Amino acid sequence: DWKTLNGRWQFCIQKRDAKDPTAFEGNILVPFSLQSPLSGALDSLSNKRKQQLGLSGPPCAPGLSKRYELWYQRGLELPQAWRAQVAQGKCVVLHIGACDYTCQVFVNGTAVGKPHVGGSTAFEYDITGALSSNPVDVLLIKCSDHEEKGANAMELRGKQLVSKAYRGPGPHVPTLYSNVTGFWQSVWIELVGPRRLRRVHCVPRCLGRVSEAAACPSKKSPRA
């Protein structure tokens, strides 16, 4: 069983390393990014606030400054049948299709796993141990998109950044694309057993026109 978490979340933008937010600035439609007009997030901010944060919409929307972090929050209401199965040993896994660029998950104020780093890969967390007995749990997620300018920048990027530090071969043609901060793929939760099939690895055998498949089970519930 699974349940989508796409839809409207609360969001706010705070200075880096600030305490957990107590107030939010508006709603954002997941899975659209902060800069996307479809998310509606920038419409929640005043022109003065957007100017303060250095944010604007496309074309060529800038990324969120490394001085700030983007926070998401929503209530997490599990189906009643899930809670009964969790009590019998099943687990609840949070899946995030992609989040640019670093992401840390909190459930009811408890940090779950280590922060994920990377803006283009899917990841997951077992959040079972952080769930409460309350009807609605609180899911809080912190995201940051820290552009490291300079020749030694390590963060992977595409064509969003034009840098004078470029030293590659050939001409450096400035190609300006809108930046992305936060979720840009779907978010959902899944009810799984303590052992489950996580993936199947297939090896084609072209001459015989058959393929070999190797199942990759999980000995215990997955963690990021």
TrEMBL record:
<dbReference type="InterPro" id="IPR008979">
    <property type="entry name" value="Galactose-bd-like_sf"/>
</dbReference>
<dbReference type="InterPro" id="IPR051913">
    <property type="entry name" value="GH2_Domain-Containing"/>
</dbReference>
<protein>
    <submittedName>
        <fullName>GUSB protein</fullName>
    </submittedName>
</protein>
